[in-house]
Design brief:
It contains four helices and six strands. By secondary structure, it is α+β, with helices and mostly antiparallel strands.
Length: 140
Amino acid sequence: MLESAAQGTARGMALVRAADAMLRSLGGQELSLLFPMVTFPEDPAAQLGLADPGVEEVQLAPVVIRNLRAESRGTRVRFEFLVPASVVWSKVEERHVSSPEALFELALGIAQDGRLLRIEKFDTEWFAGIAYLFRVTASG
């Protein structure tokens, strides 16, 4: 039984590495998540909430970007971003958040080609109990 679990974990980790390589070979584009700044400038106006503290841009790469059909008339563009789990987990650790879900929920949106996209949803692809790929859908 223990060998079976270890084999499943090894297969899952192999798929994580394969997903990284596949996404890198399919274009390896970059995704910019926007987060509110957590540190405020020393300016008293900023500390009183009278000034915009700004946003912080966090890059995720490699990413494959797919165009999707817009579901409503008000939506001009819609994309699906395929992000390897290893990249997402590294950003989870860097930003000191509890999970990939928290990372995407804290993001204000995605900056893509001069547009601000709203994150609609994200899904996790699993194999042998290990997340290997995240699908992020965004529109603007």
